[in-house]
TrEMBL record:
It is found in: Cell inner membrane. Pfam families: CtaG_Cox11. It is a single-pass type II membrane protein. The keyword Membrane applies. This is Cytochrome c oxidase assembly protein CtaG. Keywords: Cell inner membrane, Cell membrane, Copper, Membrane, Signal-anchor, Transmembrane, Transmembrane helix. Its main location: membrane. One of its GO terms (molecular function) is copper ion binding. Belongs to the COX11/CtaG family. PANTHER family: CYTOCHROME C OXIDASE ASSEMBLY PROTEIN COX11, MITOCHONDRIAL-RELATED, CYTOCHROME C OXIDASE ASSEMBLY PROTEIN COX11-RELATED. It comes from the Bacteria. GO terms for cellular component: plasma membrane. Residues 37-188 are periplasmic.
Amino acid sequence: MSAPAQADSAATKRQLRTALFAVLGICFMTGVAWASIPLYRLFCQVTGLNGTTQRGLEAPGAVNKLIRIDFDSNVAPGMKWRFRPEAGSETVKIGARDMAFFTATNTDSKPITGTATFNVTPSQAGKYFTKIQCFCFTQQTLQPGETQRMPVIFFVDPKIMDDPDARDVETITLSYTFYPVDSAKSAG
């Protein structure tokens, strides 16, 4: 083999190796991007970071302190639902079980399945806001024109009063945003 042919062969091998590493890098970065949202959500649920609430089985019992809970509702752009809390706020005893209702109406001409994400502010209160039952734990499907009343059962853990960063919190905002579920779009 002549010298120019060997040089061309070596250059081709380098180019193939570079292309292979580029494709592997793209695949790796796509995998990281795909996994980052569920991993971050799991991390926040475990630590209570960024106002992520906790799940519980039962309230520990009321203490003699009140806290105001404000309710906020949102719908992703393009999702044809009307979604509102039945009450804008409630004042509850810390440690006592309470229930609030939200109402969703499908204003589209086809069934829509949605899932709700949630957040609590201020963020330092998130780990003390515990949901026992919530429509956000499962997907919700509404038929055209259907209205559904959806409960959330919750309590504020009395441990909030022992946390120097959270004990002065007087108002907690529970916010939900409904997003369409892609599988419902393709099925509908």
